[in-house]
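In this supplementary section we document a worked example of the pipeline. Step one takes a protein sequence of length 466 as its only input; no multiple sequence alignment statistics are reported here. Step two produces a three-dimensional model, which step three serialises into structure tokens for compact storage. The input and output of this example are shown verbatim.
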Amino acid sequence: MDKTLVKICLIYLFLGAVLAAGYVFPGQFNERIEEINERIPLTLRTFPERDFQLGLDLQGGAHLVYQADLLEVEERERGDRMMALRDLIERRVDYFGIGESLVQVRGDRLIVELPGVRDQQEAVEAIGETPFLDFRVLADEETLREQEEKILEIEEALGKSIEEATLEEITQIEGWEAIFQDPFVPTDLTGRYLERAQLNFDQMGRPIVSLRFDSEGAQILEEITRDNVGQPMATYLDGEQIQVANIQEVIRGGEAQISGGFSIEEAREIARNLQIGALPIPIELISQRSVGPTLGERSLEDSIIAGVVGLIMVIIFMVFYYRLSGVMASLSLIFYLIFLLFLFKVVPITMTLSGIAGLVLSIGMAIDANILIFSRMKEEMRDGASLKDALEEGISRAWPSIRDANITTFLVALILFFVSSSFVRGFATVLLLGILVSLFSSLIVTRLLIKSFENGFLSRKKRIWL
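The serialised model returned by step three reads:
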């Protein structure tokens, strides 16, 4: 590689590292940028102030474990039902507005992690409700008439219409609950009879939700529609009305559809909600644990200290044993950490205590490729090879060992990611990214740094390389 090209690559590399460092540590960089903007008539953009996403064990929160009752669900459907239940719980934890909340399925158990949540009881109440689907029709004429009469009596007592009265005034009147009484009454048709709910399209290309009931549900649906032709029928999920449609004719065969001028995403959402409610899976809270923010903060501080100490010890070893090559490897290691932390923010990766353990471990692993290369370089230079030839030969001979070691470690980390719990998964995630970035730092960054000395004065001083 031409030396001019090496210098250009190094310049771009340093610029990239500076930008990445500014994104990782925006506070310090933004202060300098603001000082420059005040002195020079330029408006340099500052870096976005964005914190690392911290997991449950680092910022505290709630850890809940639920047991699902799958006794009445067929074996082949259990996986799908648990996934559907997980989707529902994920929507419910959105109530807390926590982007890094984690909901996982482990067999017949549901694990919910809510970092930053302090009101654990509220979280339990919001998550623990079992979804329930049912279909309702209008109450009989006598009931509706009694409700209308009661409303008229309330308005007469108020001396004004319901719309003109305040809620406080209404609640002072006896029997005020009639105003808010649901005109729809439950039927025998519930989600337990629903076999399938899916997104579909009508002849005009508008999204609809197709429903299919089992034989018992089909018979109930036929009886309901026969008795209520021309009347509305409402669909409720978790006691909340999600759709009202008029019954145009008697529905036979257990096939029905819901249409309402909604978008594709809304129709897909309704279909998913119905599918979830079709076979409610009762869940029972079997474990709950709170992690205090003080404990998490102390764990984070200890982890950072361990990482800094580990980094310093690795640098001391490399410089002492490999001299100038070790200095280049240490610079490469700093590049490695900057780019890795940059990825943690950009992806973003939720950092857990096990993930930081993986980061500390990866510091040592990131340098092992350099050690293999430098050991080969020493042998070549002792045999009289130049720095350039020793570097190329060292990389060539060390590459099979580097490749095999990293592939096996990558596969192990991949297995851990897919089959382990959340805490181990954090470790695996960091390890996977660490392997990829370490190969870049070892084979490209370190190589460019050493090649910048080729044919120079220092390249002929073999003592500083050996």
